[in-house]
Amino acid sequence: MSQSQELLHQIALTLIDGVGDVLSKNLVAYCGSSEQVFKEKKSHLEKIPGIGSVVASKIMASQHVLHRAEEEIEFINTNGISALFFTDEKYPQRLKYCHDSPLLVYYKGNADLNNSKIVSVVGTRTPSEYGKHMTEKLIKDLSHSGVLVVSGLAYGIDVLAHKESLSNNLDTVGVLAHGLDRLYPAAHTNYAKKMVQQGGLLTEFMSQTNPDRENFPKRNRI
Question: For the whole model, what pTM was predicted?
């Protein structure tokens, strides 16, 4: 199977209704590959733990998602985005300790997501002056450590952590709650552009995904 075909089915697997990250990994483990999930007989799918008749029926009726996956591949190829499946070497290996880690993530940037030193800096959107000062001090104290700073590019502490990382020559990655075809909040666009050159932007959501309220707590596990 070619890499493009493999990626096509990996993305398509994330689009099947009723099949989340945990069940998707079960399907790949039992079927052998993402492509084989779409070729498997319903009777075989039903025997996979957690699947059953209802979900198996949804998988059998999900061939239409391959077209949407083709669109996504065109988007990521045009925009220099990497799609990292959970079995890929460049996939953030620490995420595998999370039971419901994303099956696939989209990444645009140049930082090593498996840097031996990674610090997540997150906090309130309305920080006090003390909170701002301590964030600035923390990042400055880390400036010669080679650490990768991860945050959520939100207002407040998050964007301050990214800003200070950029100023102190530290790679910094923003974990987004939407697709890479947009940026929320738009006020942080300039920081995001710099981060692509000194870190990156990471998301589990494909293009055309809005920054809906429920996406923010979901992305926090990353």
Answer: 0.94
